Amino acid sequence: MARQKGIIKLTGKIGDLSFYKTKDGYLAREKGGIDGERIKKDPAFARTRENGSEFGLAATSGKTLRDAFRPLMMRAADNRITSRLTRLMSQIRKLDTTSDRGKRSVGVAIQNQPAKDMLKGFNFNVRSMLNAILYRPYTLDTSNGEIEIVDLVPINHIAAPPNSTHVSFTAAWGKVNFADGVSDLSISPAVNLPIDSTQTTVTATPPAAPGGTGTDVFILLVEFFQEVNGTQYSLNDGGYNALNIVDVV
Question: What is the pTM assigned to this prediction?
């Protein structure tokens, strides 16, 4: 893989060279590698097929989680979220100690506490991570998904971005079935506060438990706004917002 330089950037194919655009810029690469049919059938590539199968299962699990929390991700996620989640799911599926090689999955692994611990703390937006903007402890009640922050003083306990005037907190409780890709989500009303010296206890409670079966995933969303003439506008299209998995049960 090589980076294209110069004024004119190319896309497409010329001979054995492929030119394409990525998030990292315009790149070029030479055609090569092993024939796909050989990889599918040759016994020598059995391990390659198994690795590919498990990578696909990990990618599917990442999509399941993204789909479950998409309403919140639309307000707080970075442009690497897909690759970061796939990498994490690839690590989690290795904790499946019962399935055959090539069939290890997150759906099986997530039944184990170490796998849940790996998912706990995941930040959907690396540009704004929860522990870097919230300097006040919070508690989670897993019986109803309620997240509470006692005696919060926004101006002291929040690392607010420039020009922000308000901050809001939203709790979400998702039931995610990684085995069949089905999920359900319950989202609390947002608790919106001015960023000032007023002391407040924040309580964000989802209205009901999500339906279905699967893994319970609890989320906290922190959003920043700027108020102009009585209307609050999201800052930087949500670029400063934090979305974090606070617990997995």
Answer: 0.81
What are the residue boundaries of the structural domains of the chain, listed by start? 1-32, 36-119, 130-248
Quote the CA–CA distance of 5 and 176 in Å, as a whole number: 45
Contact 185, 131 (CB under 8 A): no
Distance (Å, whole) CA 57 – CA 55: 5
Distance, CA of 237 to CA of 223 (rounded, Å): 10
CB 119 within 8 A of CB 176: no
CB contact at 8 A, 121 and 96? no
Q: Strand pairing partners for 244? A: 123, 220
249 in Cβ contact with 216 (< 8 Å) = yes
Q: Give the Cα-Cα-Cα angle 3, 7, 10 (nearest 5 degrees).
A: 55
φ and ψ at 80, to 5 degrees? -110, 10
Residue 147 to residues 83, 118, 195, 210, Cα–Cα distance (Å): 29, 21, 19, 16
Q: Which amino acid is at 167?
A: V
pLDDT tens across 12-42, in order?
Answer: 677 666 766 777 777 766 665 555 564 444 4
SS3 51: helix
Q: How far apart are CA 240 and CA 206, in angstroms?
A: 23
Residue 59, C-beta contacts closer than 8 angstroms, at least 6 positions apart = 86, 89
Give the number of other CB atoms < 10 A from CB of residue 61: 26
